[in-house]
Amino acid sequence: MIIDLPSTTTSQVNSKLVHLREQGGATTLGRVLTLVIVTDDGAKTEDAIDAANDASREHPCRVIVVARGARKAAARLDAQIRVGGDAGASEVLVLRLYGALADAGASCVIPLLLPDAPVVAWWPFEAPARPADDPIGRLAQRRITDSAAERNPIKALEVRQKHYAEGDTDLAWTRLTLWRAVLAASLDLPPYEKVTDATVTGEADSPSTDLLAGWLAARLNVPVRRVKAANGQGIVSVALQRKSGPVELLRPDGKVGTLTQPGQPARRVALQRREVRDCLSEELRRLDPDEPYEETLKGLAKVVRGRTPVKTPTKAPPVADDAPVVTAADAQATLSAKESSSAGSKNGDGKPSAAKKPRAAGSTRTPARAGKGKS
Known about the structure:
Pfam family, one: OpcA_G6PD_C
Distance between the termini: 36 Å
Number of domains: 2
Shape: elongated
Oligomer: single chain
Radius of gyration: 22 Å
Protein name: Glucose-6-phosphate dehydrogenase assembly protein OpcA
Mean pLDDT: 85
Low-confidence stretches: 342-371
Number of strands: 16
Order of helices and strands: EHEHEEEHEEHEHHEHEEEEEHHEEH
Helix content: 25-40%
Strand content: 15-25%
Structural class: alpha/beta
Number of helices: 10
Largest sheet: 8 strands, mixed
């Protein structure tokens, strides 16, 4: 059900919500948080709403969309209420703000927040330089951006690095969960040797490639090179050098990766580029600061950039028909086990427990915790 309220007020929107609940016979709400989406009004607004609707099936919430319209128009608030099948497992309030109201989104959001429920702010496209200082950002415990969806992804990532505050995160970081899980799990297999250096290859404008390099630099404390790929999408390959030979994870087609390492059979790995809705659902599972993301941003300063583009293989190495397949579920199970285990040493040398240092996903995710993706 979609109800339009043109030229309205937040008080009238609240009254209509109460009326709809009474009309439907609902006296209580089962909402765990308020998700505020901040974007300019346009065709892409619906993409963000669709992603939020999908995420709400795991995290029932009230979704408030602040869609900023023309600044030169007369001050006006056009609201739209979506419930039922048009709102997933949530209720969606679309606030289209015009004129002076376009820059006063926080004042329109405050009366519509769920009482005693955490607030998460999400900028699916262009985000402010300092999300924590934004009026809506100050209302939120968590602030989600997506540097891959901005006009200049690498520049946007540099801004995120410079202005990081507790509670900030980036969907370019969330897209790395499976990559980090697979790489961390590979170091739990023999031979248990020290990683001496690493190379991460990917598209020039892929912020996820930069973040993966920063994560390896921060966790392994070894030299890491970030190389521009002459072909391929997003992250193309990762190589961890050890005495017996490299651990290599290659994904030439953006869908299926191949993990090779000395003494082990080659493995196919499900590394499909993640949808925004999946990344958003993952980020809504936690409301505390993401310390591994902060460490990774600091690790970016240690990464050495290669100047010459590298042509990567267009086909993965051959894999036996009976070779094991590492699925996304396998990788996430490994990830959860590592997060709950005690931390190992930093460089992965000596014993099996030493490989646990490069934590694949970061800090523990709680159960209560979409665009182009450059992963």
